[in-house]
Amino acid sequence: MSSDDARPVTPGSLADVIEVLAGRRLAVLTGAGVSTDSGIPDYRGPDSPPRTPMTFQQFMGDEAFRRHYWARNHVGWRHVGRTLPNAGHRALAELERRGVVGGLITQNVDLLHQAAGSRHVIDLHGRYDRVVCLDCGTVISRAELADRLDALNPGFVESVGAVGDVEIAPDADAVIEQTSHFVVAACAVCGGVLKPDIVYFGELVPRERVERAYAMVDAADALLVAGSSLTVQSGLRFVRHAARTGKPVVVVNRGATRGDRYAAVALDGGTSETLTELAQELPAP
C-alpha cells in the first residue's frame, strides 16, 4: 500500500453521503462487509482474524493443496447456501427497483444480492454455486459436485462436526485440520481438474467481466462503494476510474480503505444501517 493510498481522509456523515448521491444514478461496488450481517465473515474487516487464503498458484501446482481446499470447501459451502440476504442487500435491491441504482458490481461470491432481488449484478469474482473444469471448460453446479464428494467421502462432513462449529470464510471455505484422507473428484467428462467458479488470489478476473464493470461505472453518475476495504486492485481500479473520469465516489465501510483518498465522502459505518437509510432518503434521479 502506498503512502498516498493510506493518506487519512476526514470522515463524513450520513448527511454528507446523501448530499453527494441525491439525484444521481448510481453504480455500486460491494465487498464482504455487506454480507457480514448475514453471517459470512469478512477477510479484512477490523475485527477479522488473520487469514492466509489459498492462491491460484498453490491450487494448480500441488495436489495436496487441492485436496485440502476441497475438503474444507465441502464443509463450508453448505453454510453459504443457507445464509439469507440482510437489510443492506434488500436496500440495494430497493434502490435498483426505484431507478437510483443502475447496476451492482460485487466482489462477493455468495449470490445474496440476487437473492434479495437485485437484477443487474456483475459477480466480479465469480459465484460459489458453480464448478468449472480447467481442462475442458465443463461447468456443473456445486450441489452436483457435493453429491459426488459425499459418495467418495462417506461420513466426512459428520466427522468434522456441524458447519456451525467450524470457521467459515467468505469463499465458502471452512477451516478444518484433518484432510489428508479426503478424496477429490475429477471432471466427469474428461477427468480434468475441477475448480470453484471463483477468482482466486493471484488469478486474473476475466477481461470481459472487467469491461462490463467499467461500462457500468461509465453509465452511472456516481459510484457508491459499500463494505469493501479495496485492498486488492480488482475493486480499487473502478474507484480510480470513477475519480479519473470526474464521477463522485462515496465509500461506506467499517474502517479505512485504500479508496478513501479518491472519495468525496468516506463514511466509517455499517453497511446494513447506512444502505437502509439511503433507501429511505435518496430520491429517484
Automatic annotation (TrEMBL):
Source domain of life: Bacteria
Catalytic reactions on record: N(6)-acetyl-L-lysyl-[protein] + NAD(+) + H2O = 2''-O-acetyl-ADP-D-ribose + nicotinamide + L-lysyl-[protein]
Cofactor needs: Zn(2+)
Matches recorded under SUPFAM superfamilies: DHS-like NAD/FAD-binding domain
Residues annotated as catalytic: H125 (proton acceptor)
Annotated EC: 2.3.1.286
Function: NAD-dependent protein deacetylase which modulates the activities of several enzymes which are inactive in their acetylated form.
Protein's name in the database: NAD-dependent protein deacetylase
Organism: Cellulomonas gilvus (strain ATCC 13127 / NRRL B-14078)
Organism classification: Bacteria, Bacillati, Actinomycetota, Actinomycetes, Micrococcales
